[in-house]
Amino acid sequence: MQAVDSSPVWTEAGLAPYACYSHLSKGRIHAQDAAPTRSEFQRDRDRIVHSSAFRRLVYKTQVFLNHEGDLFRTRLTHSIEVAQLGRSIARALRINEDLTEAICLAHDLGHTPFGHAGQDALNACMVNFGGFEHNLQSLRVVDDLEERYPGYSGLNLCFETREGILKHCSAANARKLEAREPGGVGRRFLVGEQPALEAQLANLADEITYNAHDVDDGVRSGLITVVQLMEIPLFARYADEAVREHPQLQESDWQRRWLYEAIRRMLSEQVYDVIRNTGAALQAAQPANADAVRALPPLVGFSDAMRAESAALKRFLFQNLYRHPQVVDTTSRAKVVVRELFDIYLARPQEMKPRYAARAQGLEQAACARVVADFIAGMTDRYALREHERLTGKQLLTE
């Protein structure tokens, strides 16, 4: 009888020496046997995709509230687009695609309803109770809040995935993390180290993606126009290029194709710029392995010229889209929803879902406030609006 080949069906052959290799992972908080058909980072990705927090992203705001239009991005579609972009760049750089994808898919799991407005409102509510950071909340989701396994809370992800999810962290919270997990994901914020290349890439892929799709959604909404965008060099260069090659794009019936083509070319050039610039930085630094990367300055990034152009696009979106009176009006009302929900739940924890009410029972105010923040952060836009109407009788935003 022929012996069964017990070697894994997955492979990480071809990765650069400075990539993260799953068999060299710093491990999970709770030890587990290896999976026969998946690497540890593939396993992390699958756990993230099957989590409740990931499914809830489909009804969480990116810029426009979920009910404002069927085709606007949500946190879920944003995360998928970030993962696609991240994988493409990771492949070109010969770093770990599966780890990059896992980080990209999980990076917004802790985001509140109503986008950054909800985050700002919840942080203001928590100012006397330790504050609220959505990156830290994403880590709380995968470490503690997901309830799927009998032996532990959370998803029990690898160190490298968790490290990438926590892309920002205050010194105070980093010290708390270090006390809880010595040498863990909080340590780099205290000693000034960088995360792995895959985490650096996921962070940049997030920025590239939201700049591009916010241009698309902004024009679709009618709040910004292509005429305005033509004053931004990064967009105008590729819009002009597209028209030179396809003159029909200037016709009224082709305007949306013109926008898509300009965005596509802009995205492609940003991707190629990251690949060229990061490749040159890696060639110069010659890190021997993933640990060596942590002791170096950031290596994944734009060229100076592209960084300046990307920053100009970001400033344009901030001034003309995120601060547009219509968006400000909506987000102002969303902040009221979050603030009033927080005050009610803190005063009457029994109004929360039973498992959160049970967690809050008998706690001092600061600990109870953290439970309330966990509950609100996990809400979708529509659930938060329904809860607010149930508890206050008011309709500040219509579904």
TrEMBL record:
SMART domains: HDc. GO terms for molecular function: dGTPase activity. It comes from the Bacteria. CDD domains: HDc. Keywords: Hydrolase. Pfam families: HD, HD_assoc. InterPro entries: dGTPase (IPR006261), dGTPase-like (IPR050135), dNTPase_2 (IPR023023), HD/PDEase_dom (IPR003607), HD_domain (IPR006674), PHydrolase_assoc_dom (IPR026875). The keyword Hydrolase applies. Residues 75-211 form the HD domain. Belongs to the dGTPase family. Type 2 subfamily. This is Deoxyguanosinetriphosphate triphosphohydrolase-like protein. It comes from Comamonas odontotermitis.
